[in-house]
Amino acid sequence: MSSTHTDLVSEVKWVDNNDKGEFLVSISLDRFVKKWTINKGLECSDLMELKLVSHPNKKNKVESQFYRYASGLSIDFDNKDSNI
Fold this sequence. Notes:
Layout: E1 9-16, E2 22-28, E3 32-38, E4 42-49, E5 51-52, H1 61-64, E6 68-69
Antiparallel strand pairs: 1-2, 2-3, 3-4, 5-6
């Protein structure tokens, strides 16, 4: 996995995780949500990989054997719990 995004970044948000401090989260068209922290320089880690999953009731079983990647356009966090 790349340490940075490989496609356009659609949104960046500051997240205040009370006891763990603040960090940046970015979402991109490359299907990754990344967490950015400043420790000994700017460090990046994958927070989530977005995948497009077919509906379980879908009749076409051949298509459901494959998964496609989903692009991210927007991200939001709960005001009381930044893990949500």
